[in-house]
Specification:
By secondary structure, the protein is of the alpha/beta class. It has 7 helices and 6 strands. It has a 6-stranded parallel beta sheet with strand order 3-4-2-1-5-6, sandwiched between helices. The longest helix has 24 residues. 33% of the residues are buried.
């Protein structure tokens, strides 16, 4: 019998949603952040064990500087405002990605939130921030190659499990189900190794219009 323990979401469509309303893209990002908060709470209430949100991709650094700065401000605001709410809801906060590229103040907020919620035993919500799957795989290859070079790992011992342990997601299960909003049909450099056997669900709904009821309904479709 299927069990749904880990859902990953590519939260796409904030910019288009705002443009359709003749508003700046930043307006869509604000609305999208509010939706993310609701979905995190919904996932916790459903009893999910893991939720991974594609929050800021490595490619997002190429966006206009003003938009990137706004996204950084929005992320820091979320962490400062929600860290204690996550703790109260027994939600553990984690991240994957090259967070060392983030502004120092955000790195401190991430570290604080991780430390505060480290003992929480409910949902684990993971923000993929400054994350790209290709970069993650290359980093894992370098890590393994270095271990072989230093005689810490035998070439014959390299297998799928060994490789998975060298990824940023080591210690957590691969996604059972991946949801992408906005009508795009691709993974966009998101968890490509980990999603090898995941079921994929694509919806035309733009992320700021995504609701808890839609999330619940889509998750139920996993079992059909």
């Amino acid at each position: 019998m299927k069990s749904l323990d880990h859902v990953a979401i590519i939260m796409d469509g904030n910019g288009r949603w705002a443009q359709m309303r003749s508003r700046p893209r930043t307006y869509g990002h604000i609305k999208g952040a509010r939706v993310a908060k609701k979905i995190i709470t919904c996932a916790a209430d459903m009893g999910l064990k893991h939720l991974t949100l594609y929050t800021f991709s490595s490619d997002n650094w190429l966006r206009p500087k003003d938009e990137v700065n706004f996204l950084m401000t929005l992320l820091e605001r979320y962490l400062k405002k929600e860290s204690h709410n996550l703790y109260k809801k027994n939600i553990r906060f984690t991240t994957i990605g090259q967070t060392e590229k983030l502004p120092n103040s955000i790195q401190r907020s991430i570290a604080y939130t991780k430390n505060l919620t480290s003992g929480c035993t409910g949902l684990e919500v993971c923000f993929a921030i400054s994350y790209g799957s290709k970069q993650e795989i290359i980093s894992a290859v370098k890590k393994i190659a270095s271990a072989v070079k230093d005689n810490q790992l035998d070439l014959a011992d390299i297998d799928e499990d060994q490789f998975s342990q060298s990824l940023m997601t080591t210690g957590r299960p691969d996604p059972d189900f991946v949801i992408r909003t906005s009508g795009e049909y691709r993974l966009s450099n998101f968890l490509m190794w980990q999603c090898a056997y995941s079921e994929l669900f694509f919806t035309d709904i733009l992320w700021p219009d995504f609701t808890e009821n839609q999330f619940t309904s889509i998750c139920k479709s996993y079992f059909s």
